């Protein structure tokens, strides 16, 4: 049957051998039975030292591909950008490879895009959303980061990494790979008119090591400053 949409699911990974198989199988199980949705899965791996690539390739024999980044710098944002460049879909889904994002929400995201939204965000901070197995320190950091993010966007969960966006909304947009939160770049810079936050429960990783480090917080603050300058510069050009 002819599909009326092609979805590109992009998953950046680094040492996710303990999680990636269940993540990929969850996506396949949720999209295979959708008659009106064609899809591809693109795993962009940051040169993992474990078996992430081998496991992903075994699962994705017929459903996608694995792109291996071999640059010295490890960067989630660069991986996502490379995945977007490699994608063929007209709708992009971005999600983590650690199992924190529920694959059963992807069809819900797609349905909302077809209903006229340009951008859908999986949100922990709208009614019905929340976190599970989140240590207090992570809760404080996450809330503080979202508080800062409100300086540049109306999105409540502006640190979300669970996103669905029309590819056209990214056309000609210069997303900065220096930013740790690629979602925040999209929320501020993408060409979209209608967005919606859909609640979900973020399940903190039970296996593997978190990529959140102290330097990440500093990088995020620098990213906020750059995006504020970008927004102000764009406003001045519009008014001139």
Can I get a quick summary?
The chain is of the alpha/beta class and 240 residues long. It has one domain (6-239): Spore Coat Polysaccharide Biosynthesis Protein SpsA, Chain A, CATH 3.90.550.
Please provide a written account of the structure:
Helices cover 37% and strands 19% of the residues. It is α/β, with parallel strands linked by helices. The protein has a single domain (6-239), classed as Alpha-Beta Complex (Spore Coat Polysaccharide Biosynthesis Protein SpsA, Chain A), CATH 3.90.550. Helix 2 links the parallel strand 2 (38-45) and strand 3 (64-68). Helix 5 (136-149) packs parallel to helix 7 (214-239). The longest helix has 26 residues, at 214-239. It is globular. The mean pLDDT is 89.
User: What is the helical fraction, as a range of percent?
Assistant: 25-40%
- What is the averaged pLDDT score? 89
In total, the number of domains comes to 1
The rough form would be described as globular
Strand order of the largest sheet: 3-2-1-4-7-5-8
CATH architecture descriptor text: Alpha-Beta Complex
Give the secondary structure arrangement, pairings included:
Blueprint: E1 6-13, H1 20-31, E2 38-45, H2 52-59, E3 64-68, H3 76-86, E4 91-94, H4 106-114, E5 119-123, E6 130-132, H5 136-149, E7 163-166, H6 182-189, E8 195-199, E9 201-203, H7 214-239
